[in-house]
Amino acid sequence: MAKPKLSTVKQLDALPHTGANNKPERYGVEGVPGLYIQITPKGSKSWLLRVSVNGKSRELGLGGYPEYGLKDAKDKAKEQRAKAQLGIDTKAEKEETRAKNAAKAREADAKAYTFEKALDDYVDIKRATFKTYKAQMQWESPVRRYAFPVIGKMPVDEITVQDVLKIIQPLWDTKNETAGRVRSRMELIIASAIVRGYRKGDNPARWVGNLAAVLPPAKAVRDVRNMPAVPIARAAEWFAELRQCAGMGSRALEFLALTAVRSGNVRGATWEEIDLDAGVWEIPAERMKMRQAHTVPLPTVALDLLKALPRMQGNPLVFPAPRGGELSDMTLSATMRRMHAAKLEQDGVGWIDETSKAPAVPHGLRSTFRDWAGDMTEYPRELAEMVLAHTVGGVEGAYRRGQAIERRRPIMEAWAAHLTGAEQESGKVVRFG
Hints:
By secondary structure, the protein is an alpha+beta fold. 49% of the residues lie in helices and 9% in strands. It is built from 18 helices and seven strands. The protein starts with 8 loop residues before the first helix and ends in a 7-residue tail after the last helix. Pfam families: Arm-DNA-bind_3 (PF13356), Phage_int_M (PF22022), Phage_integrase (PF00589).
């Protein structure tokens, strides 16, 4: 049986939900076609109007009861019906207005969404990929140092290729590896912001089809800018002078020379990574450039150096700075600059690279080792490359699986002997292979 149409306020007030089902129930209202009062199972009531606009059925909400009384509902219903007859789709207009307001809100959010915020959000999303807080800080640090002064406060949606170039170009020739890290991390951060709707269009930090068109390939830059190295023939003389220098920075540089690793590996080294009894140093993957763990067989000279070092209570670092944190890369570089200045004053030559004629730098010690291994020994090439933690492919890659630690130990002892002058003193001929 059809439900009776309501015509009075008294009928509305007394209207119950029948409880026949757990859905809202509707009752027609006399006087306006398509006008209904809807009541929920909990007893709340609201007005609905069904109309046809341009052949499309529409259902419009007209407000709740008793906020809007019977007369109010009829007046609004008649107004909406008149609009419908003129082809005005009120519901579509509301949806369009809502969409425009949402777009404006998103645009406002994007304008307020800075690169600094984008970095924080990216790190939050990817936090599980950083094994330690220190690894996270090492990932963030280059971006904060080089990108933040230029685009940190800038909305991500406004960053241009020119802005990225302001950051990358000054570093590209002189600190190419750092520039590459900053660029790739900026690309990841901005890509994340794009996916989450804070930016439209291309990623300005993208390399392929973008920055590659205006910057030389990294390999070409690195090939041209070999790090100035101490000449092989003068390595023992340089090392002897280094051992006369005081300070933790000098000891860190001495350890770096003996192990042929990168500055960051030495500065971040912890006692937990070093097994003095086994004579090995295990550098975890997160502290390696290629993100692969690297084991260094420590020569006797390096072990003696470590055993003589003072230990700062509660500090895990092998070479801590005076205030307890990591030594800066500048500390090791400054040690070499002072050594060069002192030698220059003494002999007018100093410690210069024979090819570039530039003063030797810490990273150049890896080149000194590689030149020594290639020019003055018969050790297999793959062993020298593995000492430097370079990727070894092909047949050579077979050695990589086990890292050939014991095969590398003799080459490390021979290198230490070269640095300390023990080869010349003993007159001993090193056996290779």
